[in-house]
């Protein structure tokens, strides 16, 4: 039986690593595909990883509710605590044998994310937070026996990851592709498009200067863990309009420092005002 005194953050870490182990083991194998609306799909690895994560959560926190990307909402509808599970963020990458993927697990209590983990299955790393601290656990067997180090944001790389995947609720006023083509952006930053929310955790870790996406992200299984990591690490995290996340026009700017955030916000505002 799981330890009832185990901290929520460590449950999140164990769950994310359980999913990451499945993702790693199934990499490069023949995968069944299951179609989704909008041309998206899940694979048998997505489903197996989600089951492994759910097994950990149900054993450790049986009274909590869970929203899984593949299995939907389960558990008590009125539960004050809900786990958000993205078993394989970057399915399209994974399906063509690219290792740029993440396994995301986050715990919401009311309107706050109080624990989260984002695992990189192929680099033996898991980024985690208890809502206050932000840490990187690296090394060991699948990350379980490694050491923890603080996540330290930095703008030094000048690399800004931009999500080009739909939907684009703020178009035509804001389109991510227009940001990449803007001369002011090109003069200040270098774009990256890795197509997985692992890049959000990289902002917290100092490997990206910022991350930008459109979309309505409240209670998103894809983004909840990364946003929590960035907030706990001390990044500047807002919507596309500079307001608090999940308000106003939505979207996300997660920046390593105020200067980077201010520059991106100005560029986005200018682009939006010219439409």
In a few lines, what is going on in this structure?
The chain is α+β, with helices and mostly antiparallel strands and 275 residues long.
Structure description:
The chain has 275 residues and is α+β, with helices and mostly antiparallel strands. Helix content is 31%, strand content 26%. It has eight helices and 15 strands. A hairpin with a 5-residue loop joins β1 and β2. The radius of gyration is 18 Å and the shape is globular.
Label this structure with key terms:
five-stranded mixed sheet, about 25% strand, about 280 residues, eight-stranded mixed sheet, 8 helices, alpha+beta, single chain
Largest sheet: 8 strands, mixed
Q: How far apart are the termini?
A: 58 Å
Tally of strands: 15
Radius of gyration: 18 Å
Structural class: alpha+beta
How are the strands ordered across the major sheet? Answer: 4-3-5-6-7-8-9-10
Report the mean per-residue pLDDT as an integer.
93
Proportion of beta-strand residues = 25-35%
Low-confidence stretches: none
Number of helices: 8
Shape: globular
Q: Specify the helix fraction band.
A: 25-40%
Order of helices and strands: HEEHEEEHEEEEEEHHEHEHEEH
Could you outline the blueprint of secondary structure elements for this entry?
Layout: H1 8-26, E1 33-35, E2 41-43, H2 44-60, E3 65-68, E4 72-74, E5 81-89, H3 91-95, E6 102-109, E7 112-120, E8 125-129, E9 134-138, E10 147-150, E11 159-162, H4 176-181, H5 183-188, E12 190-192, H6 198-204, E13 210-213, H7 224-233, E14 236-238, E15 252-255, H8 258-273
Parallel strand pairs: 3-5, 11-12, 11-13
Antiparallel strand pairs: 1-2, 3-4, 5-6, 6-7, 7-8, 8-9, 9-10, 13-15, 14-15
């Amino acid at each position: 039986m799981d330890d009832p005194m185990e901290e929520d953050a460590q449950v999140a870490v164990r769950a994310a690593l359980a999913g990451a182990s499945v993702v790693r083991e199934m990499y490069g194998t023949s995968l069944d595909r299951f179609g989704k609306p909008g041309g998206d799909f899940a694979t048998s690895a997505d489903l197996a990883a989600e089951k492994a994560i759910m097994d950990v959560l149900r054993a450790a926190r049986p009274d909590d509710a869970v929203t899984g990307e593949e299995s939907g909402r389960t558990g008590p509808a009125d539960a004050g605590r809900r786990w958000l599970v993205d078993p394989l963020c970057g399915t399209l990458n994974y399906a063509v044998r690219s290792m740029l993927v993440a396994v995301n697990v986050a715990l919401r209590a009311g309107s706050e994310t109080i624990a989260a983990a984002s695992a990189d299955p192929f680099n033996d790393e898991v980024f985690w937070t208890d809502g206050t601290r932000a840490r990187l656990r690296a090394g060991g067997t699948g990350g379980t026996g490694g050491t923890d180090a603080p996540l330290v944001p930095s703008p030094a790389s000048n690399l800004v990851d931009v999500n080009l995947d739909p939907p684009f609720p703020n178009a035509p006023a804001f389109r991510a592709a227009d940001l990449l083509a803007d001369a002011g952006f090109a003069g200040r930053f270098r774009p990256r498009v890795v197509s997985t929310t692992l890049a959000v955790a990289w902002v917290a870790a100092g490997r990206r200067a910022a991350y930008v996406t459109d979309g309505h992200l409240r209670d998103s299984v894809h983004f909840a863990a990364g946003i929590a990591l960035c907030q706990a690490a001390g990044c500047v995290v807002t919507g596309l309009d500079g307001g608090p996340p999940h308000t106003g026009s939505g979207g996300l700017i997660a920046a390593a420092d105020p200067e980077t955030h201010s520059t991106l916000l100005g560029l986005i505002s200018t682009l939006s005002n010219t439409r």
